[in-house]
Design goal:
232 residues, globular
């Protein structure tokens, strides 16, 4: 699944065995129909990846053979990858009064140094990033973990609404969207029970609508539950 290299920026080549294919290969297989056979064919084939990047973007070109030219691509996929948004709309005393107060306070506002410099609430930065859906016309949007600051249904519903307004999610003419959780998405510091228990509970109770974005079902159905949630 080659991709076009951008002009300028540093570049590097890395060889690896196909059996250790990076997350990008698995992501592409999940996001686009009809590539399963191609991916299986790659699994026994060494490949070379060419990386070029800036502070805000990167291009990764996958080559079947190290001797192939990066500029001689057969297809290009554009991925909008958003991670570590840490969205919390408010404290969540129903989950844990002191822990969610501290976690919410830690990310009440964050300095943006690269995209649109300035200090603002994470939810606003997330909305600004989603404007790239219109401007960049990606093939898929990937939410790569810690999208919410702790598992709270109000924050998850905000994310779903923002994605819907940006044209992402399930439905014709919408941008396919994939979600994978980080520890903040399902963890409430100080809550009774093990991390494994929290991950299992909150993935089911609150994060399910985000996971459903990749399953072709209504993102707003089910999975909400009372005040908390999260998974990873």
């Amino acid at each position: 699944m080659p991709g076009r290299c951008p002009r300028g920026g540093p570049a590097s080549r890395k060889e690896a065995a196909g059996a250790g294919s990076p997350w990008l290969a698995g992501l592409a297989a999940a996001a686009f129909a009809g590539v399963g056979d191609a991916l299986a064919d790659w699994s026994a084939t060494p490949w070379t990846s060419v990386h070029q990047w800036t502070a805000l973007a990167s291009n990764i070109t996958l080559l079947r053979r190290p001797s192939d030219e990066p500029g001689n691509v057969t297809s290009t996929w554009r991925i909008l990858h958003i991670t570590d948004a840490h969205i919390s709309l408010s404290e969540a005393p129903d989950l844990h009064p002191s822990a969610t107060r501290r976690m919410h306070g830690a990310f009440r506002s964050v300095q943006d140094q690269h995209f649109e410099p300035g200090r603002r609430a994470p939810k606003e930065t997330f909305q600004r990033l989603l404007r790239l859906v219109r401007d960049a016309d990606p093939d898929v949007v990937v939410l790569g973990g810690d999208i919410v600051n702790y598992p709270h249904n109000a924050s998850v519903q905000f994310v779903l609404k923002a994605l819907g307004e940006a044209g992402c999610g399930v439905g014709q003419h919408r941008i396919p969207t994939l979600f994978t959780a980080g520890n903040h998405d399902w963890l409430v510091e100080g809550l009774e029970g093990s991390r494994a228990d929290q991950r299992s509970r909150f993935r089911h109770e609150v994060l399910r609508p985000l996971y459903r974005l990749a399953r072709g079902t209504d993102s707003g159905a089910g999975g909400g539950g009372g005040g908390g949630g999260g998974g990873g």
